[in-house]
Input
Amino acid sequence: MSIGENVRRIREAIAEAALKAGAKGDITLVAATKTHPPEIIREAIKAGISDCGENRVQEMLRKLPLGAYEGARLHFIGHLQKNKVKYVVGEVSLIQSVDSKELVSLIGERAKRLGIVQDILIEVNIGGEESKSGVSPDRLEELLDFCAAESGVFVRGLMTIPPVATENNGNRRYFDQMYKLFVDTGVKKYDNIKMEILSMGMSADFEEAILAGSNMVRIGSAIFGPRLVI
Output
């Protein structure tokens, strides 16, 4: 299938899952563009993709001057190293992978220097995997308290990457746990925080995530095919 056909097929699947879930708002489709060249990304944007997500800062910086993301909002969805913060803040609409007080401080300081407020999501390590980044669920409230005092950032929600599922619907319990965290956090009153976005679900499990309450999915291979070797 062409990229345009893939985008249409995925949007239909998203709409069907949203209907089953009784979703009250739109589900945002973020095209995960890691390893894919600018011309392919532009083809996806032409097919209706309005949000793109990059995982690597160096790759993002190579593609930006080439107009890879023109016409779409750019998200940073990968692990953000502290020494790369200065290259990302102000260049992207949303940083989805914030997981520590130090990272919040660095993002906030850079944003204030630029005279902006940077939108972020807090990444939660819902599966407790040592190999993955993300704040543990029991430390989320502490991190949000810290974010509330940092005027250079605005927290718009939560993000997660659950463990790799070994069976159908294998991640549903993690998605349900994330939705509960999202809802419970949303009823609390914080400065600089408004729980609007729950980003979870990728190519293999986005329908399952939507059924659990996700309103943003990050999809790469189902749009572009396998990642390229770069």
